[in-house]
Structures are given as structure tokens and as C-alpha cells.
Design goal:
Layout: H1 6-100, H2 117-125
């Protein structure tokens, strides 16, 4: 008797089905690998973006501190102009009073004078 070819055909059909399943699984595996690589690249780009944003935040903090210092300096300008105005008015009054008074009204000895102490001490220690 002749052997049947049906069992061999069945095994051939199952091998074709398993090859199709293997090909589909390999395609899906390759797709998942690409997806994983894309997610990893996105994470690296995100980490780089975070570093850049942190650098910008640090720069903004430095600029904010500099703005506060500038504000403090600008706050002092009105006082500076007020003091300068007082000085100029006092100087002008002094000049006018010197023109009016030809004889100084200050008593002798009221003027500050620099006395060289080194020479006095040297003269006192060496009486000749």
C-alpha cells in the first residue's frame, strides 16, 4: 500500500504557519526596538533640554540680582544730587562771604595748623 501524503502536507502547513508567525514576531520585535531607540533618544534630548533650561534659569537669577543692585544704586542718586546741591550752595555762600569780608572775623588760633611732631620730639631729646 501506498503511504498517505496528508500528514506530510500537514506538517508543511504548520511549518508555513510557524514561519509566518516568526516573521510577524520578528517584524514586531524590530518595530519595538525602533520604538525603544526613539524613546531613549527622546529621553537624551529631554535631559539636554533640562540642562539648558536650568542654565537659563541660573542666568535669569543672576540678572535679577543685578537688577536689584542697579535699583539700589539708582535709589541713591536723589540723595547724591541733594548732597551735591548743599555742597555747592555752601561753597557759593562761603565765596560770597569772603568777598564781603575783607578782614577775617576768626580769632587768631582758630585755624588748624599742621605741626611736625617728629622735629619737636627730636629737638626735645637733643638739647644743645
Amino acid at each position: 500500500m501506498r503511504q498517505s501524503v496528508a500528514p506530510s502536507r500537514m506538517s508543511h502547513a504548520t511549518s508555513l504557519a510557524s514561519q509566518a508567525n516568526n516573521t510577524a514576531a520578528l517584524n514586531r520585535l524590530l518595530e519595538k526596538k525602533k520604538e525603544h531607540e526613539a524613546v531613549a533618544a527622546l529621553e537624551r534630548a529631554s535631559a539636554l533640554f533640562v540642562k539648558r533650561i536650568e542654565g537659563l534659569a541660573d542666568d535669569c537669577e543672576v540678572m535679577a540680582d543685578a537688577g536689584q543692585v542697579h535699583g539700589q544704586v539708582l535709589e541713591q542718586w536723589p540723595n547724591m544730587f541733594r548732597i551735591l546741591g548743599l555742597f555747592l550752595a555752601n561753597r557759593q555762600q562761603s565765596a560770597e562771604s569772603e568777598e564781603l569780608e575783607t578782614v577775617p572775623s576768626s580769632v587768631a588760633g582758630e585755624r588748624l595748623v599742621r605741626i611736625p611732631l617728629d622735629q619737636l620730639v627730636a629737638d626735645d631729646s637733643n638739647p644743645s
